[in-house]
Specification:
alpha/beta; 15 strands; about 20% strand; globular; three-stranded mixed beta sheet; about 350 residues
Length: about 350
């Protein structure tokens, strides 16, 4: 299967979800909560949508890791792809976040799960750039082509070209930054709302890149390996058609294949000819998430893909003699050394060393 489509994902079940007022200023896709709807009602609706996405992905044969979040101070924690990305070969990146009330979305338990269940060799943490006012919000700010090793990025407050260069140097990607704006001239806040790169197909609103030369360079780079480019309109982008993600699923019979996950709203916005091109290489899987989309993000934003090799499941790992000795009440290693420094005068020590 392609390196582009992960077979496992991370979702966060944010029990106190609300559109984040701290991100509304530069997110033209964010909307207000309908009048008369309480915060508790919004959270309950969003929670049901999160559970529906998890169930839909599992039904498609994707491995889903769900983390609960009861913290009411993290309204956007449902979007973990903004703070973490994983990469083949065992690398993990942790990113600097624009809104200060999003920075504690980063979770040690997610990293520990990855280290315990997958082969993680290194974690590169860029979050120390936040005090300098420099941000790169993960695979929201970047859309990564894992096959051709290209990182596409629309410049914005949340997407700094200098951090992009650092990330690309560290993770061996070619940086491809560009400006992207809507019809009112407002910069697109995240690249992943206007573009999705799959193995054999890419969805992108090229018309939102005003520089015609750069637009054609992006088109050429996306299609150079034979990938088909489905051009989206700005209207389709506003329906979150660009906020899709290709995953690797598995049928009940065990056959593997690509699925293109997106919201039902995004799916409805696509023309039949666009759907036909996508379905030449992937099965479209969609779920209705209107409450979560109030926050200005959709299915892609909710998913942090796991591009790591899974560790084999070991039920009862065999411990070495040294580990067994350390685990004992009076730990003495096979060479006769007593390993508890706090009990250096243990009465058995002299006998053990003799």
């Amino acid at each position: 299967m392609s390196a582009q489509a992960p077979s496992a994902v991370i979702l966060v079940r944010a029990q106190n979800y609300l559109p984040n007022p701290a991100t509304a200023a530069d997110n033209a896709f964010q909307a207000d909560v309908p009048d008369g709807r309480s915060g508790a009602a919004v959270s309950a609706l969003a929670l049901a949508e999160m559970d529906a996405l998890a169930a839909t992905l599992r039904d498609a044969g994707v491995r889903v890791h769900v983390f609960d979040d009861e913290d009411h101070t993290r309204p956007d924690s449902v979007f973990p792809n903004n703070w973490i990305s994983t990469h083949a070969g065992g690398s993990v990146a942790v990113f600097p976040m624009y809104a200060s009330n999003r920075r504690h979305e980063r979770r040690a338990d997610v990293l520990e799960m990855l280290k315990s269940e997958y082969r993680v060799q290194t974690i590169v943490d860029y979050s120390g750039l936040e005090p300098d006012g420099i941000f790169l919000e993960g695979t929201g700010a970047m859309v990564l082509d894992h096959v051709s090793r290209v990182a596409y990025m629309a410049r914005s407050h949340r997407s700094d070209a200098h951090v992009l260069e650092r990330f690309c140097t560290d993770f061996n990607y070619e940086p491809m930054a560009f400006d992207a704006v809507d019809s009112a001239g407002v910069p697109v806040y995240h690249t992943n709302v206007l573009a999705c790169v799959g193995t054999d197909v890419a969805l992108i609103a090229l018309e939102m890149i005003p520089d015609k030369v750069r637009r054609e360079q992006v088109r050429e780079r996306l299609s150079v390996n034979g990938r088909q480019v489905v051009e989206l309109t700005e209207e389709q982008v506003r329906e979150f058609a660009g906020n899709a993600v290709e995953l690797c699923g598995r049928t009940p019979e065990g056959r593997r294949g690509y699925v293109m996950a997106m919201s039902a709203r995004a799916h409805r916005s696509l023309r039949p000819d666009q759907v036909a091109v996508i379905e030449e290489s992937a099965t479209i899987v969609s779920v209705d998430i209107p409450t979560i989309e109030l926050a200005g993000g959709s299915v892609r934003c909710m998913i942090a893909g796991v591009h790591l090799d899974r560790r084999p499941v070991v039920v009862d790992p065999e411990l070495s003699d040294a580990v067994l000795a350390i685990n004992e009440d009076h730990p003495v290693t096979p060479d006769g050394r007593y390993v508890d420094a706090d009990h250096a005068d243990h009465p058995d020590r002299a006998d053990s060393a003799a």
